[in-house]
Amino acid sequence: MSNFKIFNSYTREKELFKSIVPGYAGMYVCGPTVSGESHLGHARPYITFDVVNRYLLHLGYRVRYVRNITDAGHFEEEGREAEDKVSDKAKLERLEPMELVQKYTNLFHWGMRLFNTIEPSIEPTATGHIIEQISMIEKIINEGYAYEVNGSVYFDVKKYAQTYPYGKLSGRVLDDLLETTRELEGQDEKRNKTDFALWKSAPPQHIMRWKSPWGEGFPGWHIECSAMSAKYLGDVFDIHGGGMDLQFPHHESEIAQSTIAHGHAPVRYWMHNNMITINGKKMGKSYNNVIKLTELFSGQHPLLEQPYHPMVVRFYILQTHYRSTLDFSNEALQAAEKGLKRLWEAYETLKQLTGSTASDKTLDSRVQQMIATLDDCMNDDLNTAQVIATLFELVPIVNGIKGGQIAKEALSITTLDLLNKAFKAYLEDILGLQSIQETQGDKLDRAMSVLIDIRKDARKRKDWTASDEIRNKLAAFGIILKDEKDGNMSYTIE
RNA sequence: GGUCGGGUGGCCGAGUGGCUAGGCAGAGCUCUGCAAAAGCUCGUACAGCGGUUCGAAUCCGCUCUCGACCUCCA
pLDDT averaged over chain A? Predict the structure, then answer.
């Protein structure tokens, strides 16, 4: 039994995680709508829940991680849609929705791979589950909580709220919502403005359409998650994750639909990550301030001073608690880059160290204590920021032993072994980080050792001109030589 | 307007009723042929005003301020 505590958005409390089926954990995360390129904001939930997934695996759970691809709805591509909607165009010239879906799904996968996220166990698409969605809607109609108007089906929120705690997840009060003055399109069909669509009748020019008992149309935007999570994880499952902006109305609607269709609430633990902001504003299409992943990695964006490695972005995200907003800035990303490099180099150094007699008992036990707190950090609602801070505290100890400021035999073999395992487990397995150094080919290594040997000779002869020349010329194209205490040399590539 | 959540040192960011967060930047020192790296030391922060308390940045109230959601959104 683990001590993993999760902040449950539904109860607004940290709760001990206990899976429904011992040893197994089911997690559903709202995936991307593949009608456009993924951006930095999207990176946050998928990296956050990747860490949840990884931590559950680390704790020994067998995890079924389901993350959908939303590929149904209203699709258009910027600059293309105006003409593409004209239906008499030749097939090849016309917007083909599945073409867009394919393109952006591929791009999304590319980004996720670079972020070193573990693939979900199942990645269901909305279009692949139309039948499941229709039958769920039928159930809801049969229960008397949905009604059909002109080929569209709406969920009766007012009726639902009479019996069930509608608004509990997102902290809404139905009466307040009913009073909202905002006027929206298509409201006339609904009995109340809080009702939401389960199925939408497709206008003639709408390209994506399916047959249904209510005529041709397409599913409403909440039903896919309910239908697919139930299919692959069951009527009630452990964790449902997503961005805070989905809490209302998306997740609130999911709860309502599923509760009627299955007779009980669908989710045990709701988890919501906070937003990435840029100049204090949420990054999002409507704010016109998005930095796409392709731009982030290439540096091709007016707001970017340089390209950022995917691992730097991942590290930067994990340095903040997932429920806090995270403000983007070049400065912050650059700080993350330097920090990650330092941390990773210490990790590499650590692998070379050999333990001894624990000549410094105080230090030895302090290191063991610090290692022990790593689990506590993760167990406390996934405090990756504190995990990273703790690892950083261990860095001067590792470097100190290497640099001679701390006695070589200071740590015991046991402690050093624990330290190695902790770095491996946390850095690689749980936080999912990787080295950002280019993988150095064997041949480069050998060529470098030739240069290093020549330079060592030069230094022995006190031929500083030659030795500096080698170092400076290498530095000019980004290979940095470091002279170490013991006369050894190492190199890093910038 | 309604609901909710923030305001932490130059920047980014944890956390907490009394005990060092951490990173980046900066200053000084040690090491070094020089440099880089590394190590050590340093700034002593918690929006403002009241209140509770032996003690609050951490609890309560008010004020200012920023944001999120209420519409597609990660």
Answer: 90
Q: What is the pLDDT of residues A65-94, one digit of tens each?
A: 999 999 987 665 544 444 444 444 555 666
Same domain? For A408 and A447 the reply is no
At A130-160, the pLDDT tens digits run 999 999 999 999 999 999 999 999 999 999 9
Q: What is the pLDDT of residues A236-245, one digit of tens each?
A: 999 999 999 9
Closest nucleotide to the alpha carbon of A388, via C1': B22
Using the CA of A327, which nucleotide's C1' is the nearest one?
B12
Section A12-23 average pLDDT? 94
Q: Return the closest nucleotide (C1') to the Cα of A472.
A: B35
Q: Which nucleotides of B are covered by protein (CB under 7 A)?
A: 1-6, 11-15, 21-25, 31-40, 66-74
**Whether A268 and A172 share a structural domain:** yes
Q: What CATH number is given to the structural domain containing A187? A: 3.40.50.620
Spanning CA of A7 to C1' of B57, the rounded length in angstroms is 24
- Residue A324 CA and nucleotide B51 C1' are separated, in Å, by 29
Q: Decide if pLDDT at A355 tops 80.
A: yes
The whole-number pLDDT of residue A91 equals 59
For helices A361-379 and A384-403, angle between their N-to-C axes, nearest 10 degrees: 160
A258-289 as b/e: b if 16+ CB within 10 A:
bbbbbeebbbbbbbbbbbbbbeeebbbeeeeb
Q: How many domains does chain A divide into?
A: 3
> Which range of residues forms the domain containing residue A99?
18-273
Statement to judge: residues A120 and A182 lie in one domain: yes
Q: What is the pLDDT of residue A82?
A: 40
Residue A173, nucleotide of least CA–C1' distance: B3
Q: Which of A70, A108, A71, A45 is nearest to A239 (CA)?
A: A45
- Whole-number Å distance between alpha carbons of A266 and A268: 7
Name the closest residue (CA) to the C1' of nucleotide B24: A335
End-to-end CA distance of chain A: 44
Q: Which residues lie across from A492 on neighbouring strands?
A: A480
Q: What is the pLDDT of residue A85?
A: 40
**Is residue A323 domain-shared with residue A359, that is, in the same domain?**
yes
Q: How far is the CA of A188 from the C1' of B3 (A)?
A: 26
> What is the spatial distance, in angstroms and rounded to an integer, between the CA atom of A297 and the C1' atom of B68?
27
The CATH number covering residue A395 comes to 1.10.730.10
